[in-house]
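Quick start: what a row looks like.
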Amino acid sequence: MLYRRYSPLSMWEEMERLQRRMDRMMNRSYRHAPAFPAMNIWTNDEGAIVSAEIPGINVDDLDISVVGETLTLNGSRQLEQMDENSRYHRQERGYGNFTRSIELPFQVEGDKVEAIYKNGVLKISLPRAAADKPKRIAVKTA
């Protein structure tokens, strides 16, 4: 029987190699599952603006709701239909149902929320609830 002798240095090298392989595997899996839709959020004292990239979405397949401090987008993107003689060479754009919820930093006036969809970008204006807006307190002198 042949025994292989490991030095402490070779064991560390093997562990580092295994760590690099695990890192590559984990990074590869995360790249394939980004959050959809991608969103940007801006806030000020008056409210928030949410911008979401949703190309290829029919507005009738989109549902926006605000409950308390949570904004939720629900929708679906249909699979592009090709002729029956075509087959995919590469398919990177997803399709099907999606849901994305975002916690906002304040309460929102739900009845005053506005949404505009233009060029594949959904822009949602979320006015801050009056009770949640910062109020200036006057200081009186005695």
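That is the whole record. The chain has a mean pLDDT of 84. The domain at 39-78+97-131 is CATH 2.60.40.790 (Immunoglobulin-like).
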